[in-house]
Specification:
Keywords: Isomerase. This is L-arabinose isomerase. GO terms for molecular function: isomerase activity. It comes from Labeo rohita. It is a single chain. By secondary structure, the chain is mainly α. The protein has 2 domains: about 60 residues, no CATH class; about 100 residues, no CATH class. Helices cover about 60% and strands about 0% of the residues. The longest helix is centred in the first third of the chain and has 19 residues. The protein is elongated.
Amino acid sequence: MKSCDFQLLVQALVISRLDYCNALLAGLPSCTIKPLQMIQNAAARLVFNEPKRAHVTPLFITLHWLPIAARIKFKTLMLAYRTTTGSAPAYLHSLLPIYTPSRTLRSASERRLIVPSQRGTKSLSRTFSYTVPGWWNDLPTAIRNANSLTTFKQLLKTHLFRHYLT
C-alpha cells in the first residue's frame, strides 16, 4: 500500500472520527482534549511509520493537519463566520449575537460578536456562547471580513497553522 493511500485511509477512518462534533469541545480544558490529541499523534506516526517517541510537529506540517485544539477552533470559527454572514442555522444567532454599535463607529464594519459578561462560576467561561465570540474577535480583521466561506477557510487555516505549528 502506498503512503498516500495509507494517509487517505487514516484520514477517513481516524481523523474523521476525531473531527466529528468536535465543536462541542470548544472551551473545554486541555486535559479533556489531550486523549484525542494523543490519538492524532499516533495516527501521524502511523502514516509515516515513525517510532512512538518521534516528534509529531514536522509530521503534521507535512500532512497539513492542524492539532486537535486548532481543529476545534477552526470548526467553531467557521460556525461564527456563517453566523455573521447570515448563513448559519437560526439557533446559532441567539448563541452568537452580532455586535451592532448604538452609534456610527469605525468598528461597525469589523463583524464582531458580543462576548457575554462572565458572572458566576468558572464553568460559564467554558460555554460555546462565551468562548467562540472571544476567539472570533481575536482574529485579524482581514480574516473576519473575508468575502466568501472558501476564502475564510483558507485564511483561517493559514492563520491557525502559523499559530499552532510554527
